[in-house]
Design brief:
It contains 8 helices and 10 strands. The chain is an alpha/beta fold and about 250 residues long.
């Protein structure tokens, strides 16, 4: 059977005249886009343009909700009650879904951003709040989550379709968590290294941790960060390597 994987990227993270990433170039190399919803990054016009470009290129569109932290780019943890976190996520999914509807497309998935995503991997209460929010907006939405995370468990318990996600451009710890960005080597920038890692995830379902241990990592989708300065080169290398090895690149099946 032919191997298949989704390549996703975080994008639509510019704000007003401030630019982040090269979304148009990156969109042509991935199969799904996680579009920021205005809380950790983005604004209404950026959301509209990003969704329009993704739809035109046949890329599946997902909501990328985060903490309301524009200054910190959503990478700082915030204390919220489960009720508040649920409302914050509902609000952002709803906003992105409206831009999809305006383009005649359907929202495909939800992937929390930054500190919210990382905390939901270990915080059951936050994970359940996110899963409830997704289900309340549309139970058909796919939830992207790390293997073995509380978010994956909460999504499955809520009856959601959960797509397990790996990161080709991030370092891993021996327990399967992402290496903190504050540590050297946490973000990978070498295209060949990242492409080799992506191929190994698809074929073997594992990566090598920064301390040398082998980490099992079953995944349906692989993320490449749009704010990585090498994002386009990495995406090109990953896609070229996977396709050369006969791997089909396509959005996660609903």
């Amino acid at each position: 059977m032919k191997l298949r994987i989704d390549l996703n990227a975080d994008m639509g993270e510019s704000f007003g005249p401030w630019r982040m990433g090269v979304d148009e170039e990156l969109l042509g190399r991935v199969s799904s886009a996680n579009v920021a919803c205005g809380f950790h990054a983005s604004d209404p016009l950026t959301m509209a343009r990003t969704v329009r470009a993704a739809v035109r290129l046949g890329v599946a569109v997902g909501a990328h909700p985060g903490y309301p932290d524009l200054v910190g780019f959503g990478r700082r943890e915030m204390e919220m009650s489960p009720e508040e976190a649920e409302a914050v996520v509902v609000y952002q999914i709803g906003a992105l879904a409206a831009f999809c509807a305006a383009e005649g497309a359907e929202l495909h998935h939800v992937k929390p951003h930054g500190a919210m995503y990382n905390r939901a991997a270990r915080d059951r209460s936050l994970a359940e709040a996110i899963a409830r929010a997704v289900r309340r907006v549309d139970p058909r939405l796919i939830l992207y989550a790390q293997p073995g995370s509380e978010l994956a468990r909460a999504g499955e318990a809520a009856g959601l379709r959960v797509a397990l996600e790996a990161f080709a451009d991030r370092g891993y710890l021996a327990d399967g968590r992402l290496q903190p960005r504050s540590q050297p080597g946490a973000v990978l920038r070498d295209p060949e290294q990242v492409a080799e890692r992506a191929l190994r995830i698809v074929r073997e379902g594992r990566v090598t941790a920064v301390t040398g241990e082998e980490v099992e990592l079953r995944a349906e989708t692989i993320c490449l960060h749009g704010d990585n300065p090498e994002a386009v080169r990495l995406a090109e290398a990953v896609r070229r390597r996977l396709e050369a090895e006969g791997v089909e690149i396509a959005p996660v099946a609903v």
